Predict the 3D structure of the following.
Amino acid sequence: MSKIIAVASQKGGVAKSTTCRNLATILAKEGYKVLAIDTDNQASMTDCFGIVKPETLDTTLYHLMMAVMNEDDLPPKESYILNRDGVDVIPSSIEMSAIEMNLVSTMSREYVLKAITEQLRPDYDYIIVDSAPSLGLMTLNVLAACDSVLIPATPEYLSVKGLELLLQTIMKIKRRINPSITFEGILLTMFDERTNLSKNMIEMVDDAYGEHIKVFDIRIPKSVKVGEANLQSKCIVDYMPTNKAAIAYQELTKELINNG
């Protein structure tokens, strides 16, 4: 049975794309069939996989969603799925900026992405979806299509404070659109255990959400090597396997597999 995991936050700069890139690659290294879908018009995850100038590709997620909205058949998989480091990737591009406007007038607009993922689900063990840093119609599509949500947050006040609105949105989606959606948990990223701020934010997250939502004991430490790996279009495990962030992402992946 395949599992669709959305990595979502309405705040940018919390390592969503980096988390998707590393989770997908480590799952593939563990022998799973993995698809990574980039739904963000900034195409950060696409870039992390080394896919340059995605706007020049014949088919990206934008074209697939437009096909669904126009009630056209999807093209053959091999025409739009790229493979990087053992992971199948559906890239995004700046063209995704126009999707929100097109979704407004579409019937069953929350289910456009799901129409795509349901066709692809039988071919994969895991589908990892990178969402845009917003709570717009595209993010609603992501939440309607996924089985669970992994929520990255940095140990900063505004990042933690912003969790509340996202969690409220997910609960509305659960009541009205996707009753089977669950929480994978809240993942603290760019964590610096030496600072009092990080320690205080852990307590704040645990106090506010820990009773109802899993807060991962695993935290992704702040490391310049993660940025260097992204610059080289590499998974941190390949770039520097002994790095603390590489080890943390491996532990996180193991926990997700056990959850499944």
User: Anything to note?
Assistant: The mean pLDDT is 92. The beta strands are 3-7, 34-38, 82-84, 87-90, 126-130, 148-153, 182-188.
